[in-house]
Amino acid sequence: MTELVLFHHVLGLTDGVRHLADRLRAGGHTVHTPDLYGGRTFATIPDGAAFAEGADGPDLQALADEAVAALPSGVVYAGISSGVMQAQRLAQTRTGAAGAVFLESCLPITGDWAIGPWPDGVPVQVHGMDEDEFFAKEGDLDAARELVATASDGELFVYPGDAHLFEDDTLPSYDAAATALLTERVLAFLDRLS
Asked: In this protein, which residues make up the domain named Dienelactone hydrolase (predicted)?
């Protein structure tokens, strides 16, 4: 059994994020789903981003740190889209990460936005679609390629399509086939870390 923290995407902790967490739990893993929006969810990416980035928005870093404070150091940090920012920061800065799973986003490990080098011995998976306007067209795919080339145990999985948030089954962007394959790959990764 692996213990994982899954940070939600920009729309908040939707039922779709919970359903993905439940699929991972069904594989025998413990999955924490902190709600960094305090119960709020949004229907569109611009609305969620306006809330998260607004003057009165949540302090996502402080909330993420609080969410993991009582957890053991040896957890897997996972995030969906904007949730990757907290997952990747914690995987790179909190001692003892067991691994990381980044869905539809990846921060660079050099240059602008970089947190620093990838820690030695921390396995990582990155998943995204090859025509996703956010993942493929804004530099995240390039950052993912750099990360997995640098990591001693890194995997990049690129799926055909242009959907963003394709693993959230409550959204029009949901892709059942891609999500099934993603879930299979993540479960195999978590099983390997057990």
From this structure: 122-192
> CA 68, CA 63: separation in Å to the nearest integer?
9
The pLDDT tens digits of the residues spanning 10-49 come to: 999 999 999 999 999 999 999 999 999 999 999 999 999 9
Q: What is the enclosing helix (H) or strand (E) of 30?
A: strand 30-32
Select from 130, 104, 95, 135 the least CA-distant residue to 20: 104
Decide if pLDDT at 56 tops 90: no
How far is CA 63 from each of CA 7, 26, 134, 142, 188, rounded to the nearest angstrom?
Answer: 11, 27, 24, 28, 29
CA dihedral 114, 118, 124, 126 (to 10 degrees): 20
CA distance 100 to 142: 18
| 76 bridge partner residues | 4, 99
How high is the pLDDT of residue 113? Answer: 82
Number of alpha helices (DSSP H) and beta strands (DSSP E) in the chain: 6, 6
What is the CATH code of the structural domain delimited by 3-193?
A: 3.40.50.1820
C-alpha angle with apex 76: 70 to 82, nearest 5 degrees? Answer: 95
- Where do the domains of the chain lie? 3-193
Spatial CA neighbour of 141 closest among 123, 129, 149: 129
